[in-house]
Amino acid sequence: MGASKSFKGGLIRLASGLAVATAALMGSTGGAAADGIIQWSDTFAGVRYGTSYREPGSSEDIEKGIFQLGHVSGWTYGTNFFNLDILKATSESEEPNKDGDGSAQEIYFVARETLSSAKIFGFAYSGIIRDVGLTLGTDLSYKNDAFNARVRKFVVGPTINFNVPGFAQIGVQAYFEHNNNRFAKLAGPPFDPSVDFDPTWRVDGAWGIPFEIGLPFMFKGFFALTGEKGDDAFGDATTTELLVETALLADIGPSVGSDKGMLYVGLGYQYWLNKFGNDPDVTGLDGTEASVPQLVAEFHF
What we know:
This protein has 301 residues and is mostly beta strands. The chain has one domain (2-300): Beta Barrel (Outer membrane phospholipase (ompla), Chain C), CATH 2.40.230. Helix content is 14%, strand content 52%. It has helices at 2-27, 117-121, 182-187, 280-283, and strands at residues 38-53, 62-75, 78-89, 105-116, 129-143, 152-162, 167-180, 194-196, 200-213, 215-226, 241-251, 263-273, 290-300. A twelve-stranded antiparallel barrel has the order 1-2-3-4-5-6-7-9-10-11-12-13. The termini are far apart. Mean pLDDT is 89; it is low at 24-34.
């Protein structure tokens, strides 16, 4: 049983590494734009701030600042997406790091590559569907709190891109996750801090819809609905998890002397149910549900 678990974990980590390498290679083609490989791109830096983030195991509302660096681009055979979030609690008392000498910090990286059937095979779509593609990607993270999470995720599955102003898409994916649980390490055998969850399903979507009411606006966001993924490090059953992030942003660039589409500010909202798959009825943990109004700003290069 242990060998099988270790082998499965190795496959997940190998797949994640291959996905990151592939995405990095795709991203490196930016220098070849003159040859038509990169058809369009958008890179931005952003900040999100809220005062009521939650973490499983804590009854406290947590104030956090989140710095974001994002990139999306279209190339000859599909689209690339990269996002790096750096999250920091503003108060040590609300979310201390594992050494107890400062507030917790987290780094979370997402990479997605979507291969386009319209670009690769020349399929022509009409009506509400713009394109259908195959998405593969990975999530990688590290957090220095008491739990000491080190997420390694791999996803693969079809994605439908809808014919709307801006973009809107939805995908169905096979989902694999490996993580670390420092509490299980401290507890010792028979608990295993290195957790290979069961493969499961994920339905996710993203959108960015521009419109104008006096000023130009952007309504953007994403959601991820992830199925049960077996037991956690302590043998507690996980449950279906839902994460939604959305924001309504005003394009204020022209009002402050910048170009249109460069500077956005507005309000966002995060809703997270059964965070990390924790079922409070099973684990007895607080902090598994978050409802967070956010202040959001983005600068597009």
